[in-house]
Design goal:
The protein is α/β, with parallel strands linked by helices. It is built from 8 helices and 14 strands. The strands form 3 sheets. Strands 4, 5, 6, 7, 10, 11, 12, 13 and 14 form a 9-stranded mixed β-sheet that branches.
Length: 262
């Protein structure tokens, strides 16, 4: 990976980048000023994964926020940040160095859905203790694609399906390892079909923007090879009636609370 940009000041960085403190200041992240930026989905994925140890693989890592946060949470955690966009992969590598995690974090510029590319990069199947992922929410042709190339890549799978993404992610996971994903509730049927019998101990956690509103996110957790039954975890409400983050959601955004899976 290229050496990260040095000596830049907050809040606006040269070449269309910003340097931001995230997750209650736990991480300093260089990220594109425009396009897809780290936000609530990433914070929720971190809170959902907890404090895993061993090898963590962040599939579709972007600038590396989730994988870096999980590596930061435990000295026994090692993270592989897998990203197809070369510029985002470069930023992920630089963010590992920026946060003093280069000894325990690797950034890969590759197509995670390609077994050949994974193998050639040394990212073996059934090697991860935990796989986390925030896939693009839509398949090609389902929505109008943003003219911003970065946003389009983050939101739309160009030539694959959600099932392909899930299958590749689970292939990386070792038996007994944990899979954690955030997605849209209306993709539930496709998610369950893609998982099939690969995972057990499935837990589904709906995330609601406000009290009384329909869920707009779904967090899925499962264990490879488990035979335990599916269960529905207690819902998470992000905002109260005053429009402010609930105390629980605010603490997750600051990296001070994990999701209670019940």
């Amino acid at each position: 990976m290229a050496e990260p940009t040095r000596g830049l000041e907050n809040p606006t960085i040269a070449d269309g980048l910003t340097e931001d403190r995230w997750l209650g200041g736990r991480l300093t992240l260089l990220q594109p000023r425009r396009g897809h930026r780290v936000g609530t989905d990433a914070a929720l994925l971190v809170a959902a994964a907890g404090t895993p140890e061993g090898r963590i693989v962040d599939v579709g890592a972007g600038i590396g926020a989730v994988g870096l946060a999980l590596a930061k949470s435990s000295a026994l955690a090692y993270a592989d940040l897998v990203e197809i966009d070369p510029e985002l992969a470069r930023l992920a590598d630089g963010n590992a160095r920026r946060n003093g995690l280069e000894a325990r974090v690797r950034a890969f510029r590759l197509d995670a859905l390609s077994r050949r590319e994974r193998r050639e990069a040394g990212l073996a199947d059934e090697s991860a203790d935990c796989v986390v992922t925030n896939p693009p929410f839509f398949e090609a042709g389902a929505v109008r694609v943003s003219p911003d190339e970065g946003k389009a890549r983050a939101h739309v799978l160009p030539s694959a399906t959600l099932a392909d993404w899930i299958a590749a992610s689970i292939a990386i996971l070792r038996p007994g390892g944990r899979f954690v994903m955030i997605h849209r509730p209306d993709a539930l049927r496709a998610i369950l079909d893609a998982i099939g019998s690969r995972l057990g101990a499935l837990a589904l956690l709906p995330v609601h923007p406000t009290i009384g509103a329909s869920a707009h996110r779904l967090i899925v957790s499962g264990v490879k090879g488990s035979k335990a039954p599916l269960r529905l975890a207690p819902a998470l409400i992000l905002h109260g009636g005053d429009g402010r983050l609930t105390a629980e959601a605010d603490a997750m955004h600051r990296g001070e609370r994990l999701i209670d899976w019940g």
